[in-house]
Amino acid sequence: MEHTQGRGGQAEVWVDDDLLTVCDGVSDGQRPCPPGELAAVRFRYVTEAPVPLAETIGENARRRKALEPVGNWAYIGLGQVVSLMPVVIDFGLMRMEDAGWATDESLIGKFVRVDIDRLEIERCPANWEAP
Known about the structure:
Elements: E1 3-4, E2 10-15, E3 18-25, E4 41-46, E5 66-71, E6 74-83, E7 88-90, E8 95-97, E9 111-116, E10 118-123
Parallel strand pairs: 3-10
Antiparallel strand pairs: 1-2, 2-3, 4-10, 5-6, 6-7, 6-9, 7-8
C-alpha cells in the first residue's frame, strides 16, 4: 500500500512496477491501512454494465494483456480467458475472476476486453486459492 483515503476510498498500491489506483477494501473502519507491503490480499473488479465475454472477443484483436487506466479506479481490462466456472481472465499483471458465468469451453484461450468500473483490493478469505 502506497497511500489510502481509508476503507471504501481511493488507494494506491504497487503491483510489480505498476502503481494502481483501487478502491480500498483492506483498511478497517477505524483507521487507514499504513503504507507498506500487504499480505493475503486479492484484486477483484466491478463492472456496472456486464457484457457477455463472447461479445467482447473482437474488442481485443491485438491479443493484449493489460490494465489501462481510464480515470480514478476505472480501467480497460485486456486479457485472455484461462478457465471457466469460475471464469478467470489473465490481464498480464494479475489474474482475476469475472463475476459473470460461462460454460462455453470455446472461450478458453480467447482474448477479451472488460470495462472495469472499479478495481478493488480486499483481504483474502481463509480458504481462497489464487486463480
